[in-house]
Every structure is written in C-alpha cells, then in structure tokens.
Specification:
2 domains; 303 residues; five-stranded antiparallel beta sheet; 8 helices; alpha+beta; 31% helix
C-alpha cells in the first residue's frame, strides 16, 4: 500500500513541448507511463517500451462527448496499430508498462480489468469497451502486487490531467451527517442555506477536500445561465445523471458524500447557479469561509 508520505513524480517532456510526448515515473515504482498525441503516434511506437507487455488507454471524443478505450497486450504497440485504422475518434494514447518489461499477459489482463472497473465506478467518461473483462487468475501475492501497481498509477494519471478513474464520492463513514466531527481529523463543518428555495447543505473540509455531505438538500436543476460557468452546470447534470444527486420531494439530495475542488464549485452545484462559495458557505456561528480562511492564514503566519 502507498503511504501518505510525499512522492516524487518525474515528468520528461520528450519533445520539449507540454502537448507533445512525455514519460512519467515515480521513484521506487517499477511502472513506466508514456503519453503521446495521436499526431506523434509513429514516434511513440518506435520507443522501446511501446513493444513491452502492458495496458494502454485511448482517449478522445465523439459526437456524444469524451470517450476512452482500455486495452492490453503482450506487444501494446501492435495493438495500438490495429486501433489506428479501426477507431478514428481517439486523439491521444497512454502506454502503461514497466521499465524492465516485467509484466506478463496475466498481469496485463488483470490491470485492464481493474482499470475498466475503476472507470465505470467513477462514471466520468464513456468507455468504448464492451463488457468489463474478467480478472485474470493470479496468486494472492501477484494480486497484491498489481493492486499496489494500480495505486501508484491512480496517483500518476490525475497528474497527467487524466481524472477519468478518480472517484469524487467519499465513504459515508468518513464524514456523515449524523456523526460528530473529529478534532483529531481537523474536520471543519460548513453550512449553506437558502430558505427561500429550501436548500440546506453541509460540507466538511477534510484533508484538503471540500466534501458536500450525503443528505444535503440542493437544487434539483441548474437554474443559472449556461453561457458562463458551463463546467458547473455540466457537473450538476453529471451528478444528477449518475445518481449522486437524486430527487426527494420538490428538491433533491446528495445520496453520497462528494468531494469538490473548491467551495465555489460546491456552492454552484448546491444552488444550481454560479455562486461565490467563499461567502456562501458559513460556519454554524455565521463566519464565512472567506473570513475563516483569512483567520487561519493569519494564525499560521503567527505560529
């Protein structure tokens, strides 16, 4: 298991361009990630790791939105070549192997199955795959190794702006509406209420995440304009479609804890319109998030 200590991620921009080919490696991890735009697929497949055993991601979009395909192979370069003509929607590829070519076919099939499972669980992107492939039969120790490999990979992919496998829902036991907030966890509870519309939401700031709690009553639809802040309106729609926000009476409620990137993103989804979350979210005694944050920074500076 990965511990909570800092990790060093090394990105190497092969072309010297942020949108060109790059490799990603983590110190003390055997994994090797090569990412390339489709326009550089020829050069990418000439690299040694492209002929290794591993898994790969094809990323792009079609008329319905973002789309991905997850595959595996003993020579992933050959598999990608076949997709070059059979799939025309993808615009970038991610090759996941090990620097020493230590994965075998069973390892690759296990990782493929787990990645499909995680992508479907996160529900952020459509997959061009059919059914979820079965996990290959591995020994208990080999499964543990692959799960450890996967944990590192789940840290690397979001750093490459691939968050399709990153679930934002959080376990109920971590922070629930009915449980006391632990001082040991340094959890801070904020509230957002709009009595006129019956909105009553609670959120927890924990471990750097702004988590709206299950049971929070929120707007059932996006009421703001979609010409601006379209990301928030899209997110609201995705959470409704995914069942994270579900109808209850005239309003809707969060069925699960959900982590947002900022208080404003959380406030916008709760209210169904663009909102300044730093002033809308308040502590029970009335202090705004903005005031609390300022006070905390001043305390930290004086420490």
């Amino acid at each position: 298991m990965i511990n909570n200590k800092g990790q060093s991620l090394e990105l190497f921009f092969i072309d010297g361009k942020p949108d060109g080919m790059l490799t990603a490696e983590v110190f003390n991890w055997t994994g090797h990630v090569l990412m390339a735009p489709r326009t550089r697929i020829g050069a990418a497949l000439k690299r040694p790791t492209a002929s290794y055993t591993g898994v790969y991601l094809l990323l792009g979009e079609d008329d319905e939105g973002p789309l991905a395909y997850i595959g595996e192979g003993e020579d992933i370069g050959d598999r990608i070549k076949s997709h070059d003509t059979s799939k025309d929607w993808w615009t970038s590829v991610v090759l996941i192997t090990t620097a020493g070519n230590n994965l075998n076919k069973a390892h690759a099939k296990y990782l493929e199955s787990r990645l499909v499972e995680e992508a479907r669980k996160a529900g952020k992107i459509r997959l061009d795959n059919g059914n979820t492939p079965p996990r290959s039969s591995l020994s208990e120790s080999a499964q543990a190794n692959m799960e450890s490999f996967l944990e590192y990979l789940m840290m690397v992919l979001p750093a490459l702006r691939i968050d399709s496998f990153l679930a934002q829902t959080r376990p109920q036991a971590r922070a629930s509406m009915g449980s006391a907030v632990s001082d040991d966890d340094l959890d801070i509870v904020f509230e957002l209420r709009t009595p006129k519309h019956g909105i009553d939401a609670k959120a927890v700031l924990t471990e750097g995440e702004f988590v709206v709690l299950a049971g929070s009553r929120v707007s059932p639809e996006w009421r703001g304009k979609t010409t601006h802040h379209t990301g928030y309106s899209k997110l609201h729609g995705e959470l409704v479609a995914g069942g994270v926000i579900r109808p209850e009476g005239e309003l809707s409620v969060f069925s699960e804890n959900y982590a947002f990137r900022s208080p404003s993103a959380a406030a916008a989804v709760v209210n169904g319109r663009p909102t300044n979350g730093t002033t809308e979210w308040r502590l029970p005694e009335g202090k705004t998030y903005k005031a609390w944050e300022k006070e905390k920074l001043e305390q930290d500076e004086g420490a």
